[in-house]
Structures are given as C-alpha cells and as structure tokens.
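In keeping with the milestone schedule agreed at the kick-off meeting, the structural modelling team has produced records for the first pair of proteins. Each record is given below as a sequence line and a structure-token line. The laboratory manager (R.T.) confirmed that both were archived under the project's standard naming scheme.
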Amino acid sequence: MQDMDDPILTIEERAAINAGRWFSSLSSSLRHDILRCTYVERFRDGDLIAARGEPPMEWVACAKGAVRVSSTSISGKQITLTYVEPGIWFGDVAIFDGDRRTHDAYAHGDTTILCVSIADFRKILATHAELYEALLRLHARRIRHLFGLVEDLNTLPLRARLAKQLLHLARSYGMPTLSNNVEVRIGLHLAQEELAQLLGASRQRVNQELKTMEREDAIRIETAGLVVRSTKALLRISETDLE
C-alpha cells in the first residue's frame, strides 16, 4: 500500500507525468526545471484538494487516480465538469488572471498530485519563454474542447453524448480485459449518478441508455465498472445520432 506521506513519486506516477501529451512536448531543460521545483501531495477518495473561492496556491498535475472538478448549483445539485486524468496539468488559469478558483477539486480514488508553488511557477516562466507559448497551446486546446462540449450539449441527444463520453473515458482510462483483448475496461470507476452529473442528465435516463447499449453489445455493465465491448458500435451510435 502506498504511504500517503511519501514525498516521492512512484515509478508509475513519474511515468504518468512524463507520458502526458502536453508535458512530453516540452524541451528537456524545461521539463527538468519544472520537476525539480515540484512537491507531492496524496489524497484519499473524496478528499477536497481545492475549494471554489480560494486563492490559487500552486500549479498542479495529476500523477495518479483522478481529480473531479465540480461545482454546486444554487439548488444544491452537484455538477461535474470533468475528471482530470494522470499526466494532465491544471490550475494555471487562476494564477494568470489573479482571481480565485472557480470550481471545487476532489480526489476520485486514491489520488496523487504534483505541485509547483506560484513563486516557482513565475520563476520558471521568467527563465523559459518557451513555457508561455506552450501554455497558450494548452489553453487553445482546452477552449476547443469546451466549444465541442457546448455544441454537443445543444445539438446532440443524450444517447450520442453518452456514447462519446464512454469513448473518451475508454481512451483516457482504458485497459484490456483479461478474457478478451478487443474489449476495453474503463479503469475510472464511476457510479451511474457520477456519470449522469458529468453529462448533465438524470441517473434514470443514463441508466436506460446504458442498458440499451448493453443490449446492442456495445458495452457490458459489471459491478467492477463498465467494459466497452465495441468501440465501433459506440462510434456508430454517436455518429448515427448526429443525423
């Protein structure tokens, strides 16, 4: 069992950071200077990592588990925006605009994050002009993704949005099953209520769509989580419902 007070990344956690699509695109000298300034924090499932309204204290990357980024509506309803996967850096928006954090961040499963203090973040920026352009690319990618989500929310039925979300989760958290190397198990364990929050729908409607997809042999619902039986079937569902 991982010691929650261990200040050093495990081999698997370091590999997850180094394999991140954005981080791996940086020069070796920039990656080195970022990593030498980092410190490690570990959280249990459900622990609050950062709260909405707090001033930003660090720039952060997920190294293990997942970070659930969410907010609560006036009526008390939980709204989940995304699950940050290992290798993804976040928290820089509030540092740049000088405002407070806009959302809550919770650990989903045992989670490890890698942190860079604001002071060190600014020193790295001053030393590496490359980081400015790299962060601009990162922000542009985020904006494109957000535009896509807004478009999907306004144009696609729940069935198509669910299929696209399952494909995304399979790409980000997928692992082959022991019995069938074609099937992909989604390693991020989400209850149907959590999946519904992510889609902005009710648990009952999401449950109905999942059962329909299971009858169509696109997925399999197990107590351990969802298994994608056919990515082609999910793609067909998402594309068919575009028409």
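The second protein of the pair:
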Amino acid sequence: MNIKTRLIVMNFLEFFIWGSWLISLGGYMFSSLHATGAEIGLTYGTMGLASLFMPALMGIIADRWINAEKVLGVCHLLGAGLLFWASKVDNPTTMYWVILLNSMFFMPTIALNNTVSYITLEKKGIDIVSAFPPIRVWGTVGFIVAVWVVDLLGWTLNSMQFIVAATAAVLLAIYSFSMPSCIPAKRNKKLSLTESFGLDALVLFKRKKMAIFFLFAMLLGAALQITNAFGKPFLDDFGTIAAYKDTFGVKHSNILISISQISETLFILAIPFFLKRFGIKIVMLISIIAWVFRFGLFAVGNPGAGLWLLILSMIIYGMAFDFFNISGSLFVEREAEPKIRASAQGLFMVMTNGVGAYLGGWLSGLVVDYFTVDGVRNWNNIWFSFAGYALVLAVFFPLIFNYKHDRKATIDAIAH
C-alpha cells in the first residue's frame, strides 16, 4: 500500500468515528435519555470547551516529546474506551461528562491527523499543497459513510452508534501506531509558555480590524453546531405526525442531513473563484446570508411536500460552512505576521470551534427549551429565531468590518 493510500485510510477512519454519532446524538438524547434542549446543547458544547485547550496541549506533547502518530493512537484508544462507556450511559448528566472527556481526546486528533499527514508527505518528498486536499476529502467521505451506515442499520436512536464509533477508534489507534515515525522536531530555541499555547497571536486584538474579525468569527462559530445538535430531533418529531411518519426524511433523517456534508465537498471547489472575484469580505457575507437561509428553510420545510426546501437547506450548508471557515482562515493567513501565523490560525480555531461553538451549543439549547411546551417543540419558532440571529449578523458585518479587496494579493495568497 503506497503512502497516499495509507493516509487516505487514516483520514477516512478519523472522520468515520465522528460521523457515527455526531449527527444522531441529539435525537438519541431526546428519545432515549429524555434530555432537555439545554442538556443537549451543553453536551454538543463540550466539543467547543475541549477545543479551547486540548489541541494545544496535545500539540505541545507531539512537538516536544512523543511522536505525533503515537499521540494520535493513544488519543483514539482513550476515546474508544469513552465511546464504549457512552453506549452504557442512561442519563443526560453522565452523558455530558462522558462526551466532554471523549471530546478532550478526540478534538486534538483532527489537528494531529493533519500533522501526521503533512510530516509523512514531506518525508516522502511529496508536495503537501497539491497532495493533501485529495487525501483530506476522504475524511468527509468517511463521515458521510458513517452517517449512512448508522442510519440504514437503524442505529440512530440507540447506543449501537457508539459501538460503531468505538470499534473504528480502536482500529484507527492500532493503524496510527503503524504509521511512519513523526519524530518531534529539534528546536534552536526554547519556546516560551506564551508561544507554546499560541497566545502570542493575541497581539492581533490590538488591531481594530482583526478584533472585529475575531468577534464575528466567534459569533458565526456559534452557528456551527446548531443543526448538528438539533437537525435530527427536528426531523424525528415529524414522525409523531401521521402524514409524515413514513416519509424518507423521517425514516432516514441521517441520510437527508448527510447531503450537507456532500455539499461541503462541492463548494470547496468554488471558493477560489469567489475569493478572486469578490474578495474575503463579500465571501464571508455570502456565508452569513447562507446561514440565514439554512435555518429559514428548516423553519418552512417538512419531509412531505416541503422536502425540497429541506434538501435546499442541506445544499446551502456547504456554502455557509466552507465560505466562512476557509475564507476566514485565508484572511488570518494574510493579515498575521509570518512568525505568528500558526498561532493566529490556532486563535481563529479557538474563537470559532472553541468559544463560539460552546456558546452556540449552550444558547441554542435554551432557545429550544423556551419554545417547548409540555414536551412539544415549536420548531418553526426555533429555526426562525436562529435565522433571525444570522440575519442580524448579516446586517452588521458589512457595516462594521471594513476591508478593501486586493485582487492581486488574494490571488497570490490562494496560490501559496
């Protein structure tokens, strides 16, 4: 097996683990653990909480003391044990703590997976920029396959989803230990504690433009997990209505939601054109407006005659997610000084997948509970509330964030 194929298998399994339970956890907690919206939102928020510090901590370990592939393997082995534990949990409070612990070991593996891929390709003399994206896309394929497997086998509302994820985690742990050695790099100087945790990038907050950008990154990050947490429970609730209970969207809600991930792979290809033509500010505004439609279409759609509206929402998700994450990352790359670029990217991730995702999980759960009366959730009001939130961001973003598009600089940044 050549090295590219080996890395494809590693990336496939990395996101297969996540896809096995991420989309269906909310529905499982509602139906089997009788959780409230707030409890589900907080449980999804654990991924943001873990992202605040664990990726940096595991990165330091891999940079200084232990081979990255070994750290990756140990994290997945510990994660597997926690996922097996999750399959035995019978109450939402314990589930919160188990998923928090699992997130503390799983979230760092996303960066470690990339690190192992980069080092392995570099050691083989393979161009990372051109070789890695086609490898990484198999991670998205793995996520989609996992979603479909759990759905088609009827495991979305029972604990088998965790067994599937845990089994894949054990396989990936063993597989990681067999990857080429990624020995910690020797450093000419000792890093300060501030540099180790990427805190040197905090200097960017002194610049008004960057402070505003990171604020909106946090506010948009709050939208990232909302449909992961509540998309399936929303579709499952249609099963209580006779006219919808036998529709495809209810019986195979995971598959319907997976169109979102399929859309991601397609919109990635469109990003270079939009960035060159319109610039980062417009592309990010398009992303925010896409979030308005993502939530708004959920509010007016249904698995019957309104199925096309739900499908359109899934397709729009690719634009909402990719245009913000990738264009935002490119903006940070251009604006940060070379010596703090890696730290700046880490700060971007903390603001979006850390602080933003945690606040989004917590607050969205409160919104769901607010519009729940006697166990009946008013999904129209819930989704319109989220759409209204995104609409407010869409109105204020272009007014507050001042940035002039430099077509040549943007083309050069994409090229490099």
